[in-house]
């Protein structure tokens, strides 16, 4: 998977929705179509494209009414790319992807606040830490973010194994790590 292919895959709103749903919980094309209020054939087509890009894998197969029903899951390792890996990707596409990420984080935070999820200390963590950085410190923070993201993906993998073993329903959570340079 290249960053260019990932940016292209994330350019389509339905593909983004499918990836997000499959990041939280494995599902079949029919289940996704119902959850996303989209035609099942369109969902199947987008899953096929996402599988070809290596972003979605088959988690399980079962025979049902003479057909094979597959459940799919997102491979989060393939959703992570570094800024230096996007050489050749149009700046406009990167800006659009960044803007959509910001909008999604904002919508998630507003929904969490609306439903009261931000009032329970065991269900949220918010930290805002302004930092006076030199060029080296800026790089160091970026490196720490890469480590944090890798560790979060490891936690997700462990949770998927435990959820599969226990049959417990997953508790959806959103992690948004933000680091950006403030204007003077």
Q: What's this model, at a glance?
A:
With 184 residues, the protein is mostly helical. 53% of the residues lie in helices and 9% in strands.
Provide a descriptive summary of the structure in words.
The chain has 184 residues and is mostly helical. It is 53% helix and 9% strand. The chain has six helices and two strands, in the order ααααββαα. A two-stranded antiparallel sheet has the order 1-2. Strand 1 (56-64) and strand 2 form a beta hairpin. Helix 2 (13-24) packs across helix 4 and helix 3 packs across helix 4. The longest helix is centred in the C-terminal third of the chain and has 32 residues, at 135-166. The protein is globular, with a radius of gyration of 18 Å. The termini are far apart.
Shape: globular
Largest sheet: 2 strands, antiparallel
Q: What's the rounded overall pLDDT mean?
A: 87
> Could you give the distance between the termini?
37 Å
Helix content: 40-55%
Low-confidence stretches: none
Total DSSP helices: 6
Radius of gyration: 18 Å
Strand content: 5-15%
- SSE topology string: HHHHEEHH
Number of strands: 2
Entry keywords:
single chain; 184 residues; mainly alpha; 6 helices; 53% helix; globular
What's the arrangement of secondary structure elements?
Elements: H1 3-10, H2 13-24, H3 29-36, H4 40-52, E1 56-64, E2 67-74, H5 91-114, H6 135-166
Antiparallel strand pairs: 1-2
Helix pairs in contact: 2-4, 3-4
């Amino acid at each position: 998977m290249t960053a260019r292919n990932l940016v292209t895959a994330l350019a389509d709103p339905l593909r983004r929705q499918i990836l997000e749903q499959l990041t939280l919980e494995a599902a079949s094309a029919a289940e996704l179509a119902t959850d996303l209020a989209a035609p099942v054939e369109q969902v199947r087509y987008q899953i096929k494209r996402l599988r070809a890009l290596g972003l979605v894998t088959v988690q399980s197969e079962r025979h049902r009414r003479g057909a094979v029903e597959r459940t799919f899951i997102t491979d989060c390792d393939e959703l992570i790319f570094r800024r230096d890996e996007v050489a050749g990707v149009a700046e406009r596409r990167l800006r659009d992807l960044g803007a959509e990420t910001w909008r999604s984080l904002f919508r998630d935070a507003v929904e969490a606040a609306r439903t009261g999820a931000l009032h329970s200390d065991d269900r949220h963590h918010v930290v805002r830490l302004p930092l006076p950085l030199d060029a080296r410190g800026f790089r160091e923070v970026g490196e720490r973010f890469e480590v944090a993201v890798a560790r979060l993906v490891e936690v997700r993998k462990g949770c998927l194994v435990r959820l599969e073993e226990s049959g417990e329903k997953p508790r959806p959570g959103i992690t948004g790590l933000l680091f950006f340079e403030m204007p003077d």
